[in-house]
Predict the structure.
Amino acid sequence: MLKSKKPLVIPGVYDAISAKIANKVGFEAMFQTGYGTSASLFGMPDYGFIGATETIDNARRICRASTVPVIVDSDTGYGNALSVWKLVKELEAAGASGIFLEDQKWPKRCGHMQGKEVVSQEEYTEKLSAAMDARESKEFIIVARTDARATEGLDAAIERGLQNKKTGADVIFVEAPKSIKEMERIGKEINAPLVANMIEGGETPLTPSETLSKMGFNIILYPLSVLYANTYATLNILKELKKSGTTTKYKQKVVNFDQFNDLVELSKFKDMEKKYRFTKRE
């Protein structure tokens, strides 16, 4: 996954159907977003409401629906180093191909929200080391994320990134830089595979993947685009239904019955039904 010469653009998904759609479009990998998991399961913000159970259960469903690698947002690991060790074991068994592990204090919050705090580098290094020890396959990617930009400044965040590389993380992620200049510094000073996190309306300016690649970023993450687009579409069609009592106006803006059934592979299951149907023998 990290060997590609071109930047890897990865969408965020939060359920099995969004994973199916990402597959159909042709993405090479996908990211299970904790923000989207919290929103879709509970209708609540990314504010520390989901735990290991929700993350693992959702990963199992998404990985089963996907034909490409799934990297899972595992927040802070939901506890200490031993909790991280157990989480990695369970996520790898569920079919995940990697995790994002962050250094926030619990309860964590979305990296582009205010009021974040981070743990000491020593505590995070313990968790990161546990994650690396727990994985069975070296192909299982561990992304070390720091949120220190918001609390300690860019210099400290870069220093944490360098330390996480030294510890052995596969990918380094400095969350929520505030400008192109800050992103250029990260790319210049951390010689490792890097994540650029593109959130519509977030702290970091949306930047074309080609530009980010030239800065040194290998993984270009769009974690919330699907969630935001689906929310926009749902709001609009439900407003129209409430106002007019029909969705006729949106007929050309939704997939139809047959198109959706094709997406979820109805024909495959019809064929299976025929194969296993009991037939009376002579």
